[in-house]
Amino acid sequence: MIASTVALARHGREHGYAVPAVNVLDDISLRAVVAAAVHASAPLIVQASVKTVKQLGIELMTTTFRLVAQDVPVPVALHLDHCPDRAVISDVVAAGWSSVLFDASDRDLAQAERETGEVVAEAHARGLDVESEIENIVGVEDGVGSDVALHAYSVEELAAVADRTGVDLLAPQLGTAHGQYTARPVLRPDRVRALAALTDRPIVLHGGTGLAPEDFRAFIDAGVSKINISTAVKMAYMKAAAAHLDTARAKDKWDPPTMFREIQGAVTAAIATHIDWFGAAGHAADAMASGVGLAGRATGVER
Ligand SMILES: [Zn+2]
Questions:
Q1: Considering Cα of 87, then 92, then 95, then 99, what sign does the dihedral take?
Q2: pLDDT digits (tens, 9 = 90+) for 31-62
Q3: Which domains does the chain have, with CATH numbers?
């Protein structure tokens, strides 16, 4: 079933788990993560970076997602990850995905607030949810972002801006970073708790790859209900490909479908582990019964 991102995140918050929000790169990784969710009966958010969207094209991405996700017995949302580019946002809104992350963290506060409000009006008119980022989460991911913290605000400011712009989900800086960690991060579940006391909007954790299961649990207990996983997918994908190619070279045997199958198996296994850590297994049926579906909205993924 194709689902609403914010409805899934709210279900997670009400039931003490986080929805895995997994970046996919192609149909192999897309089918791999959906297979992991189906196997665990877990709700799932599939997301794509702007880079992936540009590489595949919005139409191919939308159609492939619909074909893979519409008839599976778990709710799956389709989300655009970090997007500072208003033109790409408009294209994805027109294509009718579940949601977008408007990343305004490169703008100063006044401009970020004004533009976020405009994106909310545009997206809500078509039934899409908006995740908002006005503080930057450190680290460059698929060409978007910065390695230094450019903007940081108080939780009171974050909650007030969210109220004024009407966004659906919040992506604050929580001590995590995109990519692989070179030093142990200073994690801020305390900041989640402080923000959750001021707003009932779901809170999103970015930079999840590399955290320990107890770190995820601390964030979920504090109020996080969508956790983004991207680097773990890339690592599983490329390491499976590398292992396959080593064998192919040694045997001088070249069979792409076998490699695709091995990549798919490795990505499924990596996401199964995260589903388990996030406590998301077994929640699919209840989430679907509680009305997380997109049906009835005039969206492209439901056509
Ligand atoms: Zn992110």
A1: negative
A2: 999 999 999 999 999 999 999 999 999 999 99
A3: 5-298 (3.20.20.70)
